[in-house]
Amino acid sequence: MRYSTALVFRTLVLWTVLEILAAWQVRSPAGTPVLFSWMRSVAGPVISTVEWAGALSGDIGVGLSDFERVLADNQKMRLQLEELRARHMLLQEDLGALREASVLVETSANFQTGSVVARCTYRDLGAGTMEVRTADKILIPRDAPVVGAEGLLGRVVRSEGRRHWLQLLTHAAAAVAVQTVDGDVQGLALGTGGSHLTIAYVPRQANLERGGVLMTSGGDGIFPPGIPTARIVRVRESDDPFLEVRAISSADLRATRSVLILSRWAAKDGGD
Amino acid sequence: MRARMIGLAVLTLVAQRLLGTPGLPMWPSEIVLPTVWIVAASLRSRELRWPYEALLLGLGWDLFLEPVVGPGGIAWTAAALCLHALASFVADRSSKAWAAFGVVGALVVTIVHQLALLPFGLATSMTVPHLARTALFSGLWCGLVSAVLALDLPKRWRAYRVRKLR
Fold first, then answer.
1. Which of A97, A222, A228 is nearest to A105 (CA)?
2. Which residue among A164, A192, A250, B128 has the highest number of C-beta atoms inside a 10 angstrom radius?
3. Mutate which of A18, A21, A34, A42 to disrupt the B interface (most B C-beta within 10 Å)?
């Protein structure tokens, strides 16, 4: 059995050698030995495989570089998206400010002449100050009244180019002469350094109700009369000869974005 | 002895070539004369190297008769292996067995040779009648050789000479 196996194996090897020998003798139409064609046929798949592997590695390289480029583009687009979101927020803020300014101008028709629209850029409600900016460089007179869409905000205390600093109603040193809408009751709105105002010098017999609106009376010589200033939140009697009245600013000092500076207002103009 | 065998084998190949001489009928060239060598080797020889001697016979066949050297070696070793395997099953060693082995050997040689030539585009058209005639004539040739060997002519010749000298 072992001999037969060896015999068959050796015979097969012998036949292969003989076939190769014959292939070396026979010429193909191109004039080369058929053996070369066979070798090319055997080597062809190997060469194709090598070429395929080369192409594959090239494709992988291109894919990796593309992937890196995509990552870089993705990062870039993410940054652009963040920038667009920031711009969107700014535009929303600008739009809100413009709407507010529009309302402000409509509701303050009497003050349009010589009035300047400004944009709130900074505020410190605890300190009772606010910084606003105008579009152009302009010198605002000190103590010029500043109103918002919902009411009086305060007065200008410093002006420099486009930047103007306000003293809000809630400032501890602020004081505004106020009266009821019908003008029967008058008082002085004093800033407390907090979020509310104290209405001083209101007689005990005054008829005040919670929620009532107080307007500027013009008696202080700084603010024009008729501007909504405060809304009463508490009325209390005390041992003093005056009522203890607490109010809050009519204007929302936290949310105000656009203001109107009455730069040419002077008490002597009569407040109209 | 070996040199004489080689000489006879070469003589067989030369005779095979002569059988294809132009002008002769077609059927003599269809006899595969060297088949008798592998038939005799498979039925009479006990040596195990004879398939390789068939290879030499096939290469000689290629040198004498074929355009390419190699396929003949494959064909003749294949036929030798076939007959070797067949001889291990068949116990008969008569002239009929020689004829049958000749048929098988001629068929294997012809078919395998054509198959070996196939990759080179050199294979000829092989028809069943041609194959049948080749197998038949080669078998008859082998049977004839067996019958002649069975007659033991040298022994008869020596007996005749002895009788005549008396």
1. A97
2. A164
3. A18
